[in-house]
Amino acid sequence: MQQSALFLHETSPDGGLCCCLLPGRELDVEILLSRRKLLIKGLCSFCTSTSFPSYSPFKSCVLIFLLLNFVLGYFLLSETRLHFTHYDCRTPEEWILLGLEPGSHDRKPVPGKALLPTDDVLGHEDPKSQKLIYKWTDVGVLDYDKETKLYLVHKTDENGLVRDEEGRPILNGGITPEGRAPLLPCQYWVSRVCLLFLAEDPRVFAQRVVSANSLRKKTQALLLYHLYVDCMPTDGLNSISEKSLGRMKLLAVHTPNLKKEKRVLDRLCCLEKEVRLDYERTMNKISFDRVVISKPQTFSYVTLPDKDEEKVPEKGMGCRNSQVYIDD
């Protein structure tokens, strides 16, 4: 019965093989050695490598990710946005289908490890509580939601089994003809960056978390940058010229098939205010960037956004009848 709790066939870590095998070595031996090498390497060993940022004295993937999603501000960048599908060797549907045993129609949970709270009661009531302790927990992956892009995981019991409240195995993601039952206290919807499948290379998963951490830090720095620019005063700045603004309004109003109704004119006044505000913000942004670039040591805490290089077209582009004719 214990062997039927999780489907372990073909869910051991995938090991890549070199192009040429050593003389006298068989392919099966190489696969077994490679899989064993990946299996015995715990996730924490990768977290202490030089590729991970150091939060002294803590060097733990758990603590790094807690800093990433909870301590630094959960609202800045939701973990559900950090998918990084280019790190996956399988699609979400393929991961879930690993629970199908050949010749069987019942899909079993796929073994993995997920970053979950140790207190299931408080974990569901307030997942961002500072009283919670998160740790990597053995789970069985039950299902995947395409809309939210989250995985449903179930904590294993002390025997390593996935069981419901009545001690029965959970098959087909817990979906019955009556529908999906309410979540159990030991079940959570988690994002991919919080879930490590036993069938994947933990080193690749560690790189995924490192990328998420880098993106998290960069996004926070850019949010602060835009906050600095937005808080700059606009008093005394040169506003956009009335001639340029009048030309914009004239071209907008004479758009073909546009009816000159009252609501259109009212909306035009709102757009005029937005154009003035955006022009003043752009002037402040240019001044702010110039000061930061001229004094990098003083403003070392400021991260400027990356500038997109403008590509010069190989050929000039134009269209006939591109002039706008305005009736007097």
Write a brief structural summary:
With 328 residues, the chain is of the alpha+beta class. 35% of the residues lie in helices and 11% in strands.
Low-confidence stretches: 14-21, 50-80, 324-328
Mean residue pLDDT: 75
Rounded to the nearest angstrom, the radius of gyration is 28 Å
Strand content: 5-15%
Strand order of the largest sheet: 6-3-2-1-7
* Topology pattern, helix = H, strand = E: HHHHEHEEEEEEHHH
Kindly state the percentage of residues in helix: 25-40%
Helix tally? 8
Shape: elongated
- Kindly report how far apart the N and C termini lie: 87 Å
The tally of domains stands at: 2
What profile does the largest beta sheet have?
5 strands, antiparallel
Give the tally of β-strands: 7
